[in-house]
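Request: Have a read of the protein record below and say how the chain folds.
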Amino acid sequence: MSRISLFDSLGVSGLIHVWGLPASGKTLFAVAAAASASKEGPVEWINCDGKRGFIRALKQSLQVVGGDPASVTLSFPTGPAQCFNAVLSTARITDRRPALVVVDPVTRVLDMSRSDPLMWGRTLIEDVLPTLAALSHDGTTDVVIVSESRMLENSGPRAVHHGVIRRWCSYDLLIRRGLKHGHSEILVTNAGDEPSRIIGYLTIDADGTVAVSARSSPAMREVA
């Protein structure tokens, strides 16, 4: 069980992998999680792609849920080496144990300039994923890692190094855009041929307010 109310309502905790197509709501899900977590303790957000559009939504989310802006620390490392070091540095924090760590997107930790694609995941396998998994194992800190997706010829969109990440994460969440504008489904995906199942919904209003609700109890809503 997570001490973060949003995760508790969805039934997820630990190392949570979030993936989906562009503009599906992956970062907005992390925004809602960060706003909820800020009421429980420090939040460390490592932004690895330099995009800052989420900051406005995060500020508004914190205000709506009564979160603590002073609890949220944003860092903007550039390049795979800085992103890698930021992850390791966060894992070594001992004086103010985070309630939540967000790495968005975790795929930018990879050095994709290497000619051999098999080498792209070496940093993930040997350092990043074990470090983040260990951080989440004590039940004090939850971790959200957001992945970019690539279109694969035989299986459609897939997160980069999805197979490797799935083996380390506690929950694998697909954010899928719904038919209505500003509405996405949150699905737990399973290995093999087991079907995915919807556990919640993410919506964003015209004013930029993000809301996450659990499917099992739609009346219970964590607004962000």
